[in-house]
Amino acid sequence: MVQQLSLYSVIDEGSFDLLIATISALSGRSPVLFANYNHVAHPNPNYAIEKVNAKNQLVEQTRVQLMQEIPFEKLQTEEYSYKLCTKMTGDGPPIETEYLNSLMRSCGDGTRPWSLSLWDIPSAGKDRKVCTQAVVESVVTSTGGAHSSILSFLAELGYVPGYQFVQLGTQFYLENGIVFQISKLWALHGESGKTSAVTKDGFLIKAYLNVPKATDLESINQGTAHLQQLKRELRDYLELSIPDRKSMDSRVGHLNDF
Amino acid sequence: MSQTSPLSEQADSSLKYDYSNVPAQALDAIRMRLAQLTHSLSKIRDDMSKADLPQWYSLQAQLSVTLTQLSSLTSTLQHFEDTLECTVPYPLPSFPTTAHEGLLTTLMRKKQIPEVENWIKDAIDHSGLDLEGRNWDEIESAIQRDKSTTARALDFINQEYSNYSFQGLYTAEELSKNVGDPQSMIYRSATSNAKPKAPFSVDSILTFMYQGTMKTEETSIAK
User: Is the keyword Oxidoreductase in the record (chain A)?
Assistant: First the structure.
């Protein structure tokens, strides 16, 4: 299972330019624009799923995350650079909501591939240096059936639509494989076309690194060291920290849920 | 063992020796400085042989500490030059010469070890001075020349240094022409409060991403 090592932080809008300049100067890399649409689906509550399996082991239901990148031609902007991020102060993303709402129902040859992923709750432990989270990810290139769409595909899997959001920002591909992401999030409120800013007046910072195997302790330790090094380098300017693991729990009906 | 007092006639081990003439103060001062210097030199060597180098600023700090210690050693040696030059060490009769012959030869050794001899020879060769000829005037003038070159280089560096502004947002040229916002001129990188503010918590955003709810508003976006 892929292990994602990560550290998080937040900044206000006024600090964006300085942060971009800082990371560019530190890494010698340039920022890359990215945008994606995310849909999180819940397990269908109508199915009576046993809480324990035949071996008396606990069965935990997890939300599933679908992600599709948004092509740049759909962005309502004149310039395709990180500078776009400084102009995204409104309640909605610079993307047509009709387009976003059509994504889940679109079918046929023109459909772009979806990334389907399941995220485990990050590992517990007091002395953790980074947030370690197991991820299972797969790519859905096409769906079959009479009324083919990603929605029907999810229904077949036993999932019902949940909530959706758009993530837009800029990222740096640092050395050692670390991705340094500065992004904004908007929640989409269904067919009404209403949107609201989740990261109002600020940006979410995520520095992460993926290790292909959980058993590859050497790579995990090395990745942890690289992230620690980045944290040390940015110390006194940006405090990269480990978030509360409960906030990254995608399990349904669990403890702090509902 | 190292003492300048004349040896007593009796070779009795219980005999009290007169240590009063041992230049203990000088030797101890030099010993301490040498210990410091060897410690920092071996630390630098260890750091340099590591797989990933330490940060440049810590290396530079170490180097400057080592240089300070080196100059302090040199000045101490200079200070006790006269005392040390007329000090002759010799073993006391009570010293177990047979058992510790190796130690004794090391301690009594006056000749430099081959490596040291080599670099001293190298340095002399490179200086291009003829020490054999004992032309002291020539050597003196060479040293003077060297000193004046150093002074000139130092002057040059100081002058170049003053040409630039190492703090604030403006160049020295801009500062001398009085361009720019005077408020920004007092900006100092070390004490700047350019730290980003946090308009929301990471946890609240992650809760939304993973569970569809905002901790702050407590309203479910999910149906």
Answer: no
- The reply to whether residue A237 touches residue B215, judged by beta carbons under 8 angstroms, is no
Question: Do residues A207 and A108 touch, judged by C-beta distance below 8 A?
Answer: no
Residue A50 covered by a domain:
yes
Instruction: Count how many domains chain A has.
Output: 1
Copy the structure tokens of residue B206: 């992650």
pTM passes above 0.80: no
Q: Name the residue among A10, A236, A257 with its Cβ closest to that of B202.
A: A10
Question: What's the domain range around A96?
Answer: 2-248
CATH code: domain of residue A78: 2.40.320.10
Give the model confidence (pLDDT) of A20-66 as tens digits: 988 999 999 999 999 999 999 999 888 888 788 888 888 888 999 99
Q: Does B190 touch chain A if contact means CB atoms closer than 8 Å?
A: no
| C-alpha closest to that of A71 among A123, A110, A107, A40 | A110
Is A187 within a domain?
A: yes
Q: B192, B203, B221, B223: best mutation site toward chain A, by most A Cβ within 10 Å?
A: B221
Q: How many CB atoms lie within 10 A of CB B23?
A: 17
* Domains defined for chain B, CATH in brackets: 23-87 (1.20.58.1710), 143-193 (no CATH)
Quote ipTM for the complex.
0.87
Tokens of A62: 């997890």
